[in-house]
Amino acid sequence: xxxxxxxxxxxxxxxxxxRLVRETHLVPAQLVLPAFVREGLTERVxxxxxxxxxxxxxxxxxxxxxxxxxxxxxxxxxxxxxxxxDAIGSGADDPEGILNVATRAVVxxxxxxxxxxxxxCLDEFTDHGHCGVLGAGGSVDNDATLERYGxxxxxxxxxxxxxxxxxxxxxxxxxxxRAALDDAGHTGTILLAYxxxxxxxxxxxxxxxxxSQLTGDRRTxxxxxxxxxxxxxxxxxxxxxGADIVMVKPAMPYLDVLADVRAAVDVPVWAYQVSxxxxxxxxxxxxxxxxxxxxxxxxxxxxxxAGADAVLTYWAAEAAAWL
Length: 323
Ligand code: PBG
Fold this sequence. Notes:
Elements: H1 15-21, E1 31-38, E2 45-46, E3 54-56, H2 58-71, E4 75-81, H3 98-110, E5 115-120, H4 142-159, E6 163-166, H5 173-183, E7 190-197, H6 204-209, H7 229-241, E8 245-249, H8 255-264, E9 269-272, H9 275-286, H10 292-306, E10 310-312, H11 316-322
Parallel strand pairs: 1-3, 1-4, 1-10, 4-5, 5-6, 6-7, 7-8, 8-9, 9-10
Antiparallel strand pairs: 2-3
Helix pairs in contact: 2-3, 4-5, 7-8
The structure holds ligand PBG.
The site of ligand PBG has 11 residues, from helix 6.
């Protein structure tokens, strides 16, 4: 009788051994919670396509921020839903705009217990729902949009945001925003570049969450889902422009891109587990078709294993409590 000489199962024999040889760990500090705040609400409102996620009022957001700070997660990423929109997204850089008001409130509430982060994009604030301002032909005007991003960045930094999430996918946005911030004296504001953000179907529930006005798509500025090398090129370019952190988004359909980006840059790499990824697991779990907690933790550890140093996830607070 011949026996195998190589026995990988030795290292799987007990929880203690498995824990000791585990390659990837998930800790609350690596999780960031995206949160929505809607102007004019007096109470939080559930988002139908994202069971368990709400549009916050200012007050409920402040309370939620205090709660999640106690859970030990790393940060909170704020998205504002304004009551009024216009062609250039004026609410974005108005100090009294909802996102800036909410940022001041959250920073006052949690101080440094969380890294308070803000989405830097115009799509929530424009009446056409695009991430920038439109040019004569109706397409997004890159360089005119950069001017708006610069103003928005200064407003967010002045509101106290620690980290700006550049999610608009305009060319040159990192360099432009960095220069605008530095000129205004905000040299300490961290820039997270959504370097490889893919155009696709997984953002559907988010668009309900922010009452998106978009009718077309974002394929002229977000990446083609078929392109991995292009995602790496974007990440490298963003680091060259001064990005402190780069992001791949969505997460699970793009784990190969995440691994490639991790290998190509030496700054922190984050991933955004987006609304569609969230909704799929919640819907399957609601039917009893999947083990909810198991699927959530496996998805997060998979994203970490592929190369993400931190993950934006709507399950941040809940998952932190399990870890
Ligand atoms: C754009 C933005 C999007 C998301 C966050 N910021 C995507 C989009 O509408 O193209 C999606 C997040 C999610 O789906 O959870 N500012």
